[in-house]
Amino acid sequence: MTTPTDPRRGFSRRSFLKGTAAASVAGAGLTATAPALAPPEPAKFGPGEHEITLAINGENRKVTVETRTTLLDALRDGLDLTGCKKICDRGACGGCTVLLDGEPVNGCLTLAMDGVGAEITTVESLTQGGEVHPLLESFAHCDAMQCGFCTPGMVMTSLACLNRRGKPTRAQMAHDLSGNICRCGTYGRIMDAIERTANGGGR
Question: 15, 49, 109, 130 — which has fewest CB within 10 A?
Answer without folding.
Answer: 130
